[in-house]
Amino acid sequence: MSSPKVLFGFHAVGVRLKTAPASVIEVYVDPGRRDARMKQFLARAAEAGVRVIEADGARLARLCGGAGHQGVVARVQPIAQTHSLDELLDGVAEPPLLLVLDGVTDPHNLGACLRVADGAGAHAVIAPKDHAAGINATVAKVASGAAETVPYLMVTNLARTLGELKERGIWVIGTSDDASQTLYQADLKGPTALVLGAEGKGLRQKTRDTVDTLARLDMPGAIRSLNVSNAAAISLYAATRHLRR
Description:
By secondary structure, the protein is of the alpha/beta class. It has helices at 10-19, 36-48, 57-64, 85-90, 107-120, 137-143, 146-149, 158-167, 205-210, 228-243; strands at residues 5-8, 24-29, 52-54, 72-76, 97-102, 124-128, 152-155, 171-175, 192-197, 213-215. It folds into two domains: 5-76, CATH 3.30.1330.30; 85-243, Alpha/beta knot (3-Layer(aba) Sandwich), CATH 3.40.1280. The chain is 38% helix and 19% strand.
């Protein structure tokens, strides 16, 4: 059995209590918090039959490795994830919508992207193993539970994986400030994979060479770039507007 991992924050722990309560080993809470949010959380933990342990702020910080725990930390068993992209796509009945992150190494950005992907109904987030952040407690906290609900697949060779998506009939669209067309002019009517690079660096050249087409965000204002999670939100919701009419 895999070693337990740590989740912290109301959203991340609350989603696990809701979706897989049997996987929660124990929850640590700050007894100094007696507000309505904590009372509601404790009621959910009691309903799930989870052991609750009181712990001061210093102990909670040690458990999760930081101070952003909101008074809630949990030890949980890892949940089995989809083992491969092929397995995931074979199980999707509707046109796939995928978010691909090329070079996003900041865990806060990854967490925000996972949260956006969940909200838009994306089927998975894909990233290269060598140029990406992995799932950790910070990612789970920022994702507000989405790290538990959206498959995050790290692949050995991103260009090869994009090629395999194209072979499956998935239209692979990369985002770039210098693209000739805007995202709203791109073909978003069928199975789609949206590929975003890190802010500042953008897509790596090999990734640019592999995508079917490039598109840019329509930004008439003075600011010429967005945080990758903001760009992901705009891109995914533009795609869902066509896919789920």
